[in-house]
Amino acid sequence: MVSEQQDFVSSSRKQWSSEPAFIASMAAAAVGLGNLWRFPYIMGENGGGAFVVAYLIALVVVVFPIMVLEVAAGRLAQGSTVQTFRQVNRFGTVYGWFVVLITMAITSYYLVITGWTLGYTVDSVRDDLRVFDEFSASWNSLWYFIIVTILAFLVLARDIKAIELVSKILMPVLLAVMLFLVFMASRTPGWGEALDFFFRVDWGRLNDGTLWAFAFGQAFYTLAIGQGYLVTYGSFIPRKTHVPRACVIVGITETSIALIAGFMIFPFVFSYGLEPGEGSQLAFVTLPQVFADMPGGAWIAIIFFALFFAAAFSSCLAGLKVMTAAVAEEFRLSNLRAISLVTVVMLLLGTASALSFTPLEWQIAGKPVLDVIDQVAGGNVIIFSGVVGAALFCWFIPPSRIRTVLGTGNRWWEWRIYLVGRYLPVVVLLWIIVSYAHTQVMS
Questions:
Q1: What count of Cα atoms within 13 Å lies in the side-chain half-sphere of residue 75?
Q2: How far is CA 177 from the centre of its chain?
Q3: Where are the domains of the chain?
């Protein structure tokens, strides 16, 4: 049975055309919403400079080694997330499906936010750009969510070649537009205040466990750790790819764009007297006002929101690919049948998040459904998923097997990855115990 499963996987699996193609596709997959949308608003809600310090420490010390490990594991297994973790042990199969479910939850609201970017693109073309409250006063959130989900189905029906083509075009153009907006932001009255927000660190806040939880959550989110993206995309890597080198380039790209997004948005936030902790709609509240007052803003708005849509759309494609690969390989379905099934599920699940920004205003505990799902699935759950996945690989797969797929011949990478993967779970467990004991003492 296992042999038949592996034969099906091997016969149905394609590859990225090259290492640069993998890098562009992986970068585009995580850039869209993890950096352009989520990083600025999470940073705004968590005090600016102190959050940035914690976030960068988390990336370098912990998250990057796990990124390399997940990509290498996907390359080793040459299968979906479920197929990859099945090779660890029996529990690995259960964990693999858990990762797919996390990705399902995240992608369900990703599609909604991507719908916002498409709606803003259409409004920009019509020269009718509105602030978010006006945009969400009707049923735009629902209709655009449905449109984006159907578009994603059409792209994925053509498999990874379509993803690769979109990614190669997207990344350089998006970066150029963002840098131009940073230049425009540097000429606003709020530029100095934004720099203070970034670089003035309240070192006392680094003693706050909640800040570190958000920082690690965003770091895991930025590099798509524990969501199956890296394992799935890594399974399509060509044989000669140098995995750590490719991951370094992707990691630097992701981090740079997250920071650029902050420098792009916060000067305008302070210039217009808005609140940095606005929440998930921060970019959609700020940027329409910016473009309305900027010379040539109508044209810049069209370009920016079109690229924002493309970046967000690539994130959706990545999440849908994780689910499609698992469904196709586990149930031996064709790519078309698998993506059809996943699309129907997404239409059902995403409707709740879409309706939270319509006249119905669906909420959970006083917050929009979308915000609640993001805070749960995009925070501690991702950290838990990434830590458990690293532990499974490092405790149950021999180092020699991982070494064969890193493509480096350098044992320094191997030992760094294994030290983090093996002992991070222990550190996290101790941190939880200490934090809980401290909370009990304080109460």
A1: 26
A2: 20
A3: 2-442
Residue-level pLDDT at 393: 81
CATH 1.10.10 is the classification of domain 2-442: no
Q: How far is CA 57 from CA 47, 54, 212, 224, 421, in A?
A: 16, 5, 10, 17, 16
Half-sphere CA count of 92, side-chain side, radius 13 A:
22
Predicted confidence (pLDDT) per residue in 105-136, tens digit: 989 998 999 999 999 999 999 888 887 888 88
Q: What is the DSSP string of 19-86?
A: HHHHHHHHHHHHHHHIIIIIHHHHHHHTTTHHHHHHHHHHIIIIIHHHHHHHHHHHHHHTS-HHHHHH
pTM (2 d.p.)? 0.77
CA separation for the pair 314, 311 (Å, rounded): 5
Which residue is it, tokens 């690989």?
A: 393
DSSP type of residue 136: T
**Are 3 and 282 in contact, with CB atoms under 8 Å apart?**
no
3-state secondary structure of 339: helix
CA nearest to 387, candidates 430, 341, 332: 430
Distance CA 205, CA 213 (A): 12
